[in-house]
Structure formats: C-alpha cells, structure tokens
Amino acid sequence: xxxxxxxxxxxxxxxxxxxxxxxxxxxxxxxxxxxxxxxxxxxxxxxxxxxxxxxxxxxxxxxxxxxxxxxxxxxxxxxxxxxxxxxxxxxxxxx
Length: 95
Hints:
By secondary structure, this protein is mainly alpha-helical. It has 3 helices and no strands. The protein is elongated.
C-alpha cells in the first residue's frame, strides 16, 4: 500500500509540474487549483482501483473542471516579456 501511495503522490507531483510548464495556472484561478483537482482525481482513481465505491459524477466533474482549466490556459494571451536584465555596472574610476 505504501508503494501505491508513493506512486500516486509521484504522479500528482509530475502532473502538477507539467501543468505549471504548460501554463495551466491561468489568471483568475488559484495557482494550485489544477494540482488540487489532479490530486483529488488521483485519490478517487486509487480508491476505485482498491475496490472502493466511488461517485462517477465526481470523476466527471473533476475531469470537466480540468478540461476547462486547460482550455482557459490555451486561450490565455501570452504574457508580455519583461526586461529583467540589469544594466552593466559603471566602469571603475580611473586613477
């Protein structure tokens, strides 16, 4: 069981990292919303795998919300590049 929980946790972390890479944390949503949804979905799938009774409507609700976040992220405009480069330091004084 510990191995299954570790695997589920690892998959949740990987999913969160992939979401962050793809910009699923979209304006107007909390940064961790997609990660929380994936975590809950993973727990639901794991419970079902172990033979527990799960609510199929909840699974559908989670998947629908994740799809909506992915669509929202895909439609979000690209962020404006910011110039974070600092000007070079002045030359040392002569003398």
